Sequence to fold (241 residues):
Amino acid sequence: MSQRLLIVDDEESIVTLLQFNLEQSGFEVTTAMDGATALELATEKSYDLLILDLMLPEMDGLDVCKHLRQNKVTTPILMLTAKDDEFDKVLGLELGADDYMTKPFSPREVVARVRAILRRVQPPTLETSTELAAQKENVIRFGEVEIHPDNYEVLFKQTALELTPKEFELLLYLATNKGRVLTRDQLLNAVWNYEFVGDTRIVDVHISHLREKIEENTKKPTYIKTIRGLGYKLEDPSLNV
Fold:
């Protein structure tokens, strides 16, 4: 079954170019030319990924992203921007976008980026009931947090958390390296899979989001510790009692 994408851009030439290349790559594509239509489609229908331009009529991409996340729509969002401005990129990520690309870009790069994001968010295929049983045992626990990698689920105090794909991948990587100090560059390369030269602020934004969801006091975190001058470390507070 083809994966479904929603492309949102007010430049018809860009929409046509992206639609052609993505459909040629096997994706099912829906398009929208303004933010209000995009929000309506993404809220009412199910998509595997949204390609969302920052500058849109009626409602800009940042507002669309913000409203979707507020409505608990966790569909991955690849944001497009003509502005080579770090503030716009960081703000988009803070509002819940998973990735961004700056115009101009090549259609081939967009297809590669889309595939990379979808690979990260797709749960593994279970071939047999024996494998299913094994998957259920694959649980990572620390403190009051449980990560179920094969179900793409995180529980905090037995309640399921709403995490974006990038937040999930980051928390999982921290947990599988529990007790180790990880630099921002290490986290960037491990979770995002390609270079964001000078953009380690992306890591800080996602760490902040995770702390809001699993820490009782974000100013005094017990799980994700900041190691000044180095990076971050995930700890199990129950081991320190």
